[in-house]
Structure formats: C-alpha cells, structure tokens
Amino acid sequence: MKPYLLPILLLLGMSAAAQEFGRTDTTLDVLHYDIQVHPDLHTQRLDGSVKITFTANGATLDELTLDAVGITVDTVVSSSGGVLQWEKDSTKLRIQLPEPLAAGEETAVSIHYQCSPKKGLYFVAPNATYPDDPLQCWTQGQFDNTRHWLPSHDVPFDKATAEIRIKAKDEFKVVSIGSLVDVALERRITEDAFNRDNPLDTVIYGTYRWVQDKPVSPYLFAFAIGRFQDLNLGNVSRFPLRAYADTSIPAAHLRKSFEPTGRMLTFFQDYIGYRYPWEKYDQITVSRFVHSGMENVSATILADHRTNLDDRARLNYSCEYLVAHELVHQWWGDLVTCRDWEHLWINEGLTTYFQQLWARHAHGEEEAEWHRYQGIERVLAYLDGEDPDPVVVQRQYATENVYTKAAAVMHMLHEMLGEDTFRTAMRDLARDFEYAAINTEQIRRHFEQYAGEPLDWFFHQWLYRADYPKINVRWKWDEQARAITVAAEQEINTGVGSMYQLPLSLSIGTESAELDTTVWLEHRQHELTVPLLAAPRYVAVRRDFPGSVTVEQSPQAAYAMLSDASFIGAKLDALKALKQSGIDRQVMESIGKAASTDGFYAVRRRAANVLADIAPDTVTYAGELRALLLTLTGDDDAVVRAHGYNGLSRFKDRELAPVFRGGLQDSSYHVEASALNGLLAVDTTGMRDLLLPRLRTSTYLSIVETSALDWVGKYQIEALAGEAVRLAKPGPPLLLRRKALETLFLLRYPPEELAGLLIAQLGEPVPDAKILAASALIALDPKNGKEFVRKKLENTHDPRILEYLKTIE
Ligand SMILES: [Zn+2]
To answer: Taking a C-beta distance cutoff of 8 angstroms, is the pair 395, 387 a contact?
Structure first.
C-alpha cells in the first residue's frame, strides 16, 4: 500500500488512526471462499453470499468465528443444507457447527448477507458536492477491512483460494483478482417496465466470474466496478497487462503512466529469479481512492489523480515509482506476506527497497542513492518527532519506518551479503515462503543462512529500537607525519545503553582522487590514521544507514566536497553544511555552479533552493546572486526554474517584472505559480486581469488556482470575493475549497454570509466536505461553533464524521 503524503491527511483534519489489534484464532484455517456479490451502485448496498470451506488446524473446532462488521446476516447453512445457529456482535459472526470439527477435517458453511459498507467497499457517485464524480465502486482491504463486505477470517496469515462472482449492470466493467473465467449475461425486466406495461424495457446484468486459484490473504481480495476504458499494455512472458480507468480520463495520460509496467515486470522477475506469481496484472485507476495505491493480488487499485497526469503536470510529478511499488508488492506482500501487521515492514520495506532497485536499473546508481538519501531524511524527521516507534511494532498504521527505514535495512543487508548472495537470498525467500505468511524472526533466520553468521544484533538495533545512531566525525591533518586522523564518536542515546554497530564508509578527498576506507563502529569512539602524500581537502561519509552523521570541517572543505565528491550524498551534505556555516560570496558562487552545472538533477535542485532562500538585502553580493538566479529561470528542470523565480521575488525589484511575465508562460504549473508570485510582489498593475483567468482555470492539484487565491487574500481584492465564494462551494477539489474559505476569512467576508455558506456545506453528502465546513465554523465562532457543529452532525453514522466529532470534544 502507498498512503497519501501525510500533510494532506492532516489538512483534512484526519489522522492515521491507531488501532489496537490482538491475535486471532490460528486453529481455524480457511481453504476457499466461494463468493457471490451484487453491489448496487445506486442504492450503495451489497447483497452477498459466501461458501467458506475450512479445516481445523491442530485442535478441534466447535464453532466457526468470522470477522464481519456492519453486515446483516440472513441465513447460515451447513454443507449438507442444514440451517445453523449463529450469533452476531459488532465485529464477529459466531457459527455453531453441527458437530465439532476434528483436527485436519474439512467442512463448509454458506452465509447469505447484506450490507451498506462505509469502509472496505466504497461507492462513488455524482452528488451535490461533486456532480462530475463517476459511478464506481471499489474495495480497499488493508488493514482488516475486507470484513466490512465479506464475512471472512480476515487476518493476513490465513490465506485461501477464492472464486468471486460479481454482478453488475452490463454498462459497467468489473475487474477483480485472478482470472476472468466467464461473464454470464442475464436479461431482467425492470419493475418500471411492468408499471409502464412495456416488457421490452429490460436491464442486462453481467456476472463476472473471477477465479483466484493460488491462496492469498483476505485483505488482498478486491474488485472494482465502473465505466472503465480498457487499455491493453501488451504481454510479458505469458502475462497480460492491462489498465482500466474511467472513460473521461484521456487515454494518452494513462498510457504514459503505465507504459513502463512491462519493463518493470521483466526486471523484477529477472532480478528476483522468481517468475511473476499471478495470472495477469491489472491496474485500475479509480475516483476518490483512500490511498495512492493498493497492491491487491493481480489487480492493483490506484488513485486517479496520481496517474491522470497531463504533460504540464508531468514536469513536476511522476507516478513511475508508485507503479513500481505496487507491482513489486505482487512478490513482497502478496506472494510472501507479513504474518500480522506487527511485521508490516516485510511487505513495505522489501517493496520500497525494490522500488530503489528499479531506480538503479532504470536511471542509474545516483537515482537510487537519491531515493535512499531522501528516505533517510524522512526517517530521521519521523524518529525526531513525538513518540517514535521501532519498525516492528504492534500498531496498525504505516509510518515512514515500515517503508523507508525498513528499506534502508534491506540496503544494508544487500551491502553486507554482496550482490549475488543477496539475489539468491531474495529468490529463496520467494521460493521458501511462496503463498505463506512470515514474521521478523523467520526472515532473520532466513538471512542468517546466507550471511553465515547470527544477525540478531543487526535485527535488534535496526528493527526493534526506536532511536537512531548519531555520529560526529572530526579530522585532523598532521603536516609533519603526513597523515590524516579521523575520529568518530557516537552519542549515547538516553535510555538505551548499547552502541550501534555499523560500518562507517569514509571518502577522503585528495587533490587527485578519493580514498575510500571503512571503520567498523561499535564503541563510543573510534580513531583512524591514514598516511597521505598531500593534505586532504575534505572527508565525506556515505550514510547508507538510518542515522545522522555530522562531519566537522571548514566551509572550504565543504565546497571542495560539493564540487568534487564522487557521490551525491556528499554533495547534498556539503550543501547543508554550507547553508549552516553562512554563505559568503565564494560559497554562493560554488553553490551557483552546482545549481547550474551539476550532473545530477537533485543536486541542482537543492543548490537552487539554497540560493532562493538567501535574503538579498543581507548580503554584499546581491548583484551576482541576482544574475545567478536569472540563469536558473532558464534551466531545463522545472524545479530549478521555480527556485530561480522564488529567489528573484525576494529582490522586490520592479525591473524584474518582464522576467516574471515571461515565467507566466512557463510549461510547468509550479513555475507559473512562482512567476505569478514574483510579478505581483513588484507590480500589481492589471492584477485582477492576471488573477481572474487563473482562478477560473483547472490545473493539476489546483496549483495555479491556489496561488492566485493567495493574492486575493493577501491584497484583500474584494472585487474577486465572488470568485472565492464560487471556489468555496461544491464542485472544486476540497483542498481548493479550503483555500477559498481561508481567503474569505482574510477578506473579512461578512460572517453571517460565510456562516450560511458553511452551514449549507454541513449538509453535503461527502464526509470530508462536512469536516472542512465544521472546522471552519468553529474557527468563525470559537465560542458557540463546537456545540453547533456537534448538534448538526451528531446523527450521522459515518465513521469518519464520528471520529472527527471525538476530536472536537
Ligand atoms: Zn506498499
């Protein structure tokens, strides 16, 4: 699974809910689910039946306990047709078996049921808030949500085969897991037709029969129904690859997004040495998806906004790694699965690491290093935050830990084992645990066989500790002895006695080359002396572990590192060090050189960002800085160009107006937004004419509209209040509506009218719109807002609204 970026969740007033979870019955072993469902896209109800074939594992079973939430059970019958007694509470369905099932014996029960799920199965339809939404429904099983539409033993470790028959009107396409065996058509005379005495008025239903003949965890069961276009992406080996999306999405956008799938599949199955494990691979783009993507077995579901990228958006956004992520989950997660959510890193960490291996294969070592570098930055930010967790933890949500920290752990294992042994270990992991579920200790024992030594210390420090190593490095050149002494010291983390053990890879930069050496760190302090012919220029550290390293060295050393280091981590570290040390003319020039000429785009972007952050009125080299930033506005890279305009806008110089006007025509939405900000900061003539068309456009993630609204608020342009009102009402994306509301606050829009707007919004059908309006009403009237909102919303049954109401108590 790939969640949205956290800030979006926070903006919407939601948080990733932590849930306690206990272990479930391991005596019950489900073998097969024979499922029939008819989700009605108009009434948003589902009629279903499921025949569950199961066995007792190791002990006798007296009753069958299934997970079922919000499901109304009609009947339960045994395999011989006898009616069975059952009990249902809010989360479990307990079925009394006609006689105890002895260990190893097999039987089946059939359950007929109905539900109107609010989780697990989601219905999308045009409504008052989003009149253009398509009619669709789709599932999302992780975590523990399949139980909202299917009574099941909904735990990752109980894998079973499945047959899923899904009925829908024939105007829709139905995609699910496994192979499509047949579609049975049935013609039904509608009730309406009887009323109108017109028996020809019939509806045709199709029942799609999908067979999943290899066992999978119930959270990976899935289907999607919609008016989908169907894109053939060709075959790799014998596996057909297809993509589905609403017919309103331009096919060209989808083709570009999904085009690399075949090459990725070939790479992954070759690298792992284990062929693609399923019958086909479908990628289904749906509307209002709750994550970025979900790796259901052979039927990945993705958020439409992540894959529907126009050419302008593509200058700043890509879904390549999302596509790679969900694809390689087909091995790590789907074929080999974490035993329970405590070990989620086995799904997400291996997958994130293989996403980096794809980066290396497709774009080179530097791209992979850049992924690792950013990953470690994010992990440290997470671990520095409030109440960080270890990677292996009994909590049911995905943090940066289980993705990027675990991926860094996989990288370290890779380095430790070497390329060939690592690949063999991964191949054997797939072979030994195919269609099974494993825990952290099993994976440790597996890697120990290939490492030839115990790895308990390694797993313990990286997966079971919530802190991280902090290492300070100092170095000294002894001119007389002609030797460099490097001293590394680990900080002691409070509460955790032991030191980290890790190899610290140093690169000593000399006039002619870089000298690589590795210190094995296990004590608090280490010192190393290396003879050299001439004084070294810098010492860089390859930080391929989730920890922090500070190298104490002069700005001269840092800019030598920025221009000459052989790896991008060193250059990025040099940029950080230079920014901290204060930027004089010489440093600025060296950063400017990196921004315009470095061979790797991420170094150029970071360097441009550092330049854009310099306040020109605080430095003596404003003229040179300005010239540099002007050069950057002509760069090939859209991010570098945007930094160029952002930096120039700090000059507040009217003479730059023509430069900014030029930027308004830029092909990147972000650059256009930056140029608009720059222009309006120095020249407000014709502001209304600049803003109006930009408030009325529709750009990817509302980038341009949002920055135009910024100015409406900033300059209190009351003449454009009407536009803000329009954008705050139903229709526009929620993030834009939020911005429009903020703008109306800034415009001091009459409170009674604003309240009227918000109260109407409380009645909208979409929960997130209600939550946005509720938060705004509370902000508008902190004294009475909470009570008002609670009264208005307390009768809603939607779990998201109920969660929200708890947060305002
Ligand atoms: Zn994932």
So the answer is: no
